[in-house]
Amino acid sequence: MTEFSPTEIRAVVEDVRADAVEFLCDLIRFPSISGQEREVVDCAAARFTEVAEVERVPLSNSLHDDEDYADAVPGLEYGGRSNLRLRVAGTGGGPSLLFNTHLDVVPASEGQANAFVPRVEAQRVYGRGACDAKGQVATIYTALAAARRLGMKLRGDVLAHLVVEEEVGGNGTLAMVRAGEHAEEIPVPEGKEMTSGGLVPIDLRGRLAHQVGEWGYVRLEARSRNRAGEESRCYTNPLWFRITGP
User: Fold this and answer.
1) Domain count within the chain
2) Residue 187's domain spans which residues?
3) Which residues pair with 85 in a beta bridge?
Protein backbone atom coordinates (compact mmCIF):
# COMPACT_ATOMS: atom_id res chain seq x y z
CA MET A 1 0.00 0.00 0.00
CA THR A 2 1.38 3.39 -0.98
CA GLU A 3 1.91 5.73 1.96
CA PHE A 4 0.96 9.39 1.80
CA SER A 5 2.29 12.19 3.96
CA PRO A 6 -0.03 14.26 6.17
CA THR A 7 0.78 17.25 3.95
CA GLU A 8 -0.39 15.42 0.83
CA ILE A 9 -3.58 14.28 2.55
CA ARG A 10 -4.38 17.75 3.88
CA ALA A 11 -3.90 19.26 0.43
CA VAL A 12 -6.33 16.84 -1.18
CA VAL A 13 -8.88 17.28 1.62
CA GLU A 14 -8.65 21.02 1.01
CA ASP A 15 -9.38 20.39 -2.68
CA VAL A 16 -12.51 18.41 -1.72
CA ARG A 17 -13.72 21.01 0.79
CA ALA A 18 -15.96 23.03 -1.55
CA ASP A 19 -17.70 19.92 -2.87
CA ALA A 20 -18.24 18.64 0.67
CA VAL A 21 -19.74 21.94 1.82
CA GLU A 22 -22.05 22.02 -1.19
CA PHE A 23 -23.12 18.43 -0.48
CA LEU A 24 -23.80 19.16 3.20
CA CYS A 25 -25.89 22.19 2.31
CA ASP A 26 -27.86 20.10 -0.18
CA LEU A 27 -28.56 17.49 2.51
CA ILE A 28 -29.70 20.10 5.04
CA ARG A 29 -32.31 21.45 2.61
CA PHE A 30 -34.32 18.22 2.92
CA PRO A 31 -36.56 18.14 6.03
CA SER A 32 -35.81 14.45 6.45
CA ILE A 33 -37.54 13.71 9.74
CA SER A 34 -38.02 10.03 10.46
CA GLY A 35 -40.36 8.51 7.88
CA GLN A 36 -39.74 11.29 5.35
CA GLU A 37 -36.21 10.52 4.20
CA ARG A 38 -36.76 9.44 0.59
CA GLU A 39 -35.52 12.65 -1.05
CA VAL A 40 -32.40 12.92 1.09
CA VAL A 41 -31.59 9.26 0.38
CA ASP A 42 -31.85 10.01 -3.36
CA CYS A 43 -29.55 13.02 -2.95
CA ALA A 44 -26.95 11.05 -1.00
CA ALA A 45 -27.07 8.13 -3.42
CA ALA A 46 -26.41 10.40 -6.39
CA ARG A 47 -23.45 12.11 -4.74
CA PHE A 48 -21.77 8.98 -3.38
CA THR A 49 -21.91 7.33 -6.80
CA GLU A 50 -18.90 9.56 -7.59
CA VAL A 51 -16.70 7.85 -5.01
CA ALA A 52 -18.11 4.41 -4.11
CA GLU A 53 -20.35 1.55 -5.07
CA VAL A 54 -23.85 2.49 -3.89
CA GLU A 55 -26.53 -0.06 -3.02
CA ARG A 56 -30.04 0.75 -1.89
CA VAL A 57 -31.12 -1.70 0.81
CA PRO A 58 -34.94 -1.71 0.87
CA LEU A 59 -36.88 -1.84 4.12
CA SER A 60 -40.10 -3.75 4.66
CA ASN A 61 -42.91 -3.80 7.18
CA SER A 62 -41.62 -7.13 8.47
CA LEU A 63 -39.34 -4.95 10.58
CA HIS A 64 -42.34 -4.32 12.86
CA ASP A 65 -42.17 -7.96 13.95
CA ASP A 66 -38.51 -7.91 14.97
CA GLU A 67 -38.01 -8.49 18.70
CA ASP A 68 -35.70 -5.46 18.88
CA TYR A 69 -37.96 -3.09 16.93
CA ALA A 70 -38.47 0.30 18.60
CA ASP A 71 -42.01 1.57 18.00
CA ALA A 72 -41.40 5.06 19.34
CA VAL A 73 -43.57 6.60 16.60
CA PRO A 74 -46.68 4.53 15.91
CA GLY A 75 -47.77 4.05 12.32
CA LEU A 76 -44.43 4.29 10.54
CA GLU A 77 -44.47 2.29 7.31
CA TYR A 78 -41.46 0.94 5.43
CA GLY A 79 -42.65 0.25 1.91
CA GLY A 80 -40.64 2.33 -0.57
CA ARG A 81 -38.02 3.32 2.04
CA SER A 82 -34.39 2.25 1.98
CA ASN A 83 -30.98 2.60 3.59
CA LEU A 84 -27.79 3.13 1.61
CA ARG A 85 -24.81 0.78 1.68
CA LEU A 86 -21.55 2.18 0.31
CA ARG A 87 -18.49 0.13 -0.57
CA VAL A 88 -14.99 0.88 -1.78
CA ALA A 89 -13.41 -2.48 -2.50
CA GLY A 90 -10.02 -3.24 -1.05
CA THR A 91 -7.25 -5.12 -2.80
CA GLY A 92 -7.66 -8.08 -0.46
CA GLY A 93 -6.16 -9.43 2.72
CA GLY A 94 -6.88 -6.50 5.02
CA PRO A 95 -9.46 -5.71 7.71
CA SER A 96 -12.69 -4.00 6.67
CA LEU A 97 -13.88 -0.69 8.08
CA LEU A 98 -17.60 0.08 8.35
CA PHE A 99 -18.95 3.55 9.14
CA ASN A 100 -22.53 3.87 10.35
CA THR A 101 -24.43 7.16 10.48
CA HIS A 102 -27.90 8.45 9.64
CA LEU A 103 -29.75 10.71 7.24
CA ASP A 104 -32.86 11.48 9.30
CA VAL A 105 -33.09 14.45 11.65
CA VAL A 106 -35.29 15.67 14.47
CA PRO A 107 -37.92 18.30 13.62
CA ALA A 108 -37.12 21.98 13.92
CA SER A 109 -37.11 23.22 17.51
CA GLU A 110 -39.87 25.50 18.73
CA GLY A 111 -39.21 29.00 17.44
CA GLN A 112 -36.38 27.91 15.16
CA ALA A 113 -36.85 29.74 11.87
CA ASN A 114 -35.48 28.42 8.58
CA ALA A 115 -34.09 25.25 10.16
CA PHE A 116 -33.69 23.65 6.75
CA VAL A 117 -32.07 26.64 5.06
CA PRO A 118 -28.30 26.09 5.35
CA ARG A 119 -25.91 28.95 5.89
CA VAL A 120 -22.12 29.12 5.99
CA GLU A 121 -20.55 31.52 8.47
CA ALA A 122 -16.92 31.71 9.64
CA GLN A 123 -16.09 28.40 8.00
CA ARG A 124 -18.95 26.56 9.70
CA VAL A 125 -22.16 25.17 8.21
CA TYR A 126 -25.38 25.78 10.15
CA GLY A 127 -28.78 24.13 9.72
CA ARG A 128 -30.85 21.24 11.06
CA GLY A 129 -28.76 18.09 10.81
CA ALA A 130 -25.41 19.85 10.26
CA CYS A 131 -24.13 18.26 13.47
CA ASP A 132 -26.48 15.29 13.82
CA ALA A 133 -25.73 13.71 11.47
CA LYS A 134 -25.56 15.11 7.94
CA GLY A 135 -22.20 16.64 8.75
CA GLN A 136 -20.95 13.13 9.39
CA VAL A 137 -22.30 12.01 6.02
CA ALA A 138 -20.37 14.84 4.36
CA THR A 139 -17.27 13.88 6.34
CA ILE A 140 -17.46 10.31 5.01
CA TYR A 141 -17.84 11.73 1.51
CA THR A 142 -14.75 13.91 2.08
CA ALA A 143 -12.67 10.92 3.18
CA LEU A 144 -13.74 8.73 0.24
CA ALA A 145 -13.32 11.52 -2.31
CA ALA A 146 -9.87 12.39 -0.98
CA ALA A 147 -8.78 8.75 -1.03
CA ARG A 148 -9.99 8.42 -4.60
CA ARG A 149 -8.12 11.53 -5.76
CA LEU A 150 -4.95 10.28 -4.08
CA GLY A 151 -5.30 6.90 -5.76
CA MET A 152 -5.17 5.33 -2.31
CA LYS A 153 -5.50 1.53 -2.33
CA LEU A 154 -6.37 -0.20 0.93
CA ARG A 155 -6.23 -3.93 1.48
CA GLY A 156 -9.58 -4.05 3.25
CA ASP A 157 -13.00 -2.83 2.12
CA VAL A 158 -14.26 0.54 3.30
CA LEU A 159 -18.00 0.39 3.90
CA ALA A 160 -20.63 2.82 5.10
CA HIS A 161 -24.25 2.43 6.14
CA LEU A 162 -26.29 5.61 5.76
CA VAL A 163 -29.49 4.72 7.53
CA VAL A 164 -32.93 6.16 8.07
CA GLU A 165 -34.93 6.32 11.31
CA GLU A 166 -32.10 6.67 13.80
CA GLU A 167 -33.75 9.48 15.72
CA VAL A 168 -36.73 7.43 16.89
CA GLY A 169 -35.12 4.22 18.01
CA GLY A 170 -32.51 3.04 15.54
CA ASN A 171 -34.68 0.89 13.30
CA GLY A 172 -32.69 1.76 10.19
CA THR A 173 -29.55 0.27 11.68
CA LEU A 174 -31.56 -2.69 12.97
CA ALA A 175 -32.58 -3.41 9.38
CA MET A 176 -28.93 -3.37 8.27
CA VAL A 177 -27.95 -5.71 11.10
CA ARG A 178 -30.63 -8.15 10.01
CA ALA A 179 -29.47 -7.87 6.38
CA GLY A 180 -26.06 -9.11 7.49
CA GLU A 181 -22.69 -7.38 7.33
CA HIS A 182 -19.20 -8.07 8.64
CA ALA A 183 -16.43 -5.67 9.50
CA GLU A 184 -13.49 -5.68 11.87
CA GLU A 185 -13.91 -2.03 12.87
CA ILE A 186 -17.18 -0.05 13.04
CA PRO A 187 -16.83 3.67 13.85
CA VAL A 188 -20.19 5.36 14.48
CA PRO A 189 -19.87 9.11 13.77
CA GLU A 190 -22.34 10.98 15.95
CA GLY A 191 -22.52 14.71 16.62
CA LYS A 192 -22.59 14.99 20.38
CA GLU A 193 -20.46 16.82 22.90
CA MET A 194 -17.04 15.36 23.64
CA THR A 195 -18.31 13.87 26.91
CA SER A 196 -20.86 11.72 25.06
CA GLY A 197 -18.60 9.47 23.01
CA GLY A 198 -18.52 8.94 19.28
CA LEU A 199 -16.90 10.98 16.53
CA VAL A 200 -17.31 14.73 16.37
CA PRO A 201 -17.38 15.74 12.70
CA ILE A 202 -14.61 17.74 11.09
CA ASP A 203 -15.48 21.42 10.93
CA LEU A 204 -14.34 23.44 7.93
CA ARG A 205 -11.02 24.18 9.60
CA GLY A 206 -10.14 20.49 9.62
CA ARG A 207 -10.39 19.75 13.34
CA LEU A 208 -11.40 16.23 14.34
CA ALA A 209 -12.01 14.77 17.76
CA HIS A 210 -12.47 11.12 18.64
CA GLN A 211 -13.55 9.16 21.67
CA VAL A 212 -14.07 5.45 22.12
CA GLY A 213 -17.29 4.57 23.87
CA GLU A 214 -20.97 3.86 23.52
CA TRP A 215 -23.91 5.62 25.13
CA GLY A 216 -26.62 3.01 25.07
CA TYR A 217 -30.07 4.03 26.26
CA VAL A 218 -33.00 3.09 28.43
CA ARG A 219 -36.30 2.97 26.57
CA LEU A 220 -39.34 4.32 28.36
CA GLU A 221 -42.60 6.08 27.58
CA ALA A 222 -43.62 9.37 29.17
CA ARG A 223 -46.22 12.06 28.55
CA SER A 224 -45.65 15.77 29.03
CA ARG A 225 -47.37 19.04 28.22
CA ASN A 226 -44.05 20.86 27.99
CA ARG A 227 -42.33 21.85 24.74
CA ALA A 228 -40.27 19.29 22.85
CA GLY A 229 -36.48 19.27 22.79
CA GLU A 230 -33.47 17.18 21.82
CA GLU A 231 -32.88 14.54 24.49
CA SER A 232 -29.08 14.73 24.38
CA ARG A 233 -28.93 18.47 25.09
CA CYS A 234 -29.63 18.38 28.81
CA TYR A 235 -28.71 22.00 29.38
CA THR A 236 -31.39 23.40 27.02
CA ASN A 237 -34.06 20.71 27.14
CA PRO A 238 -36.77 21.09 29.83
CA LEU A 239 -37.78 17.44 29.38
CA TRP A 240 -34.34 16.01 30.07
CA PHE A 241 -33.71 14.04 33.22
CA ARG A 242 -30.99 11.64 34.35
CA ILE A 243 -31.52 8.02 35.23
CA THR A 244 -29.02 6.78 37.79
CA GLY A 245 -28.41 3.33 39.13
CA PRO A 246 -25.97 1.25 41.10
Assistant:
1) 1
2) 6-211
3) 55, 161
pLDDT in tens, 16-40: 999 999 999 999 999 999 999 999 9
- In the 8-state DSSP scheme, what is residue 155? S
β-bridge pairing 97-102 and 158-163: parallel
Q: Is residue 225 part of a domain?
A: no
Tell me, yes or no, if the pTM score tops 0.85: no
Question: Residues with Cβ < 8 Å from 234, sequence gap 6 or more?
Answer: 240, 242
The CATH number of whichever domain residue 74 belongs to comes to: 3.40.630.10
DSSP-assigned letter for residue 199: E
In a domain, 221, yes or no: no
Q: What are phi and psi of 61, to 5 degrees?
A: -70, -5
Return the number of other C-beta atoms located less than 10 Å from residue 45's C-beta. 16
Three-class secondary structure of residue 211 per DSSP: strand
Mean pLDDT of the chain: 84
Give the CA count within 13 Å in the CB-facing half-sphere of 67: 0
| Pairing label, strands 82-88, 97-102 | unpaired
Alpha carbon distances (Å) from 213 to 101, 177, 187, 196:
15, 20, 10, 8
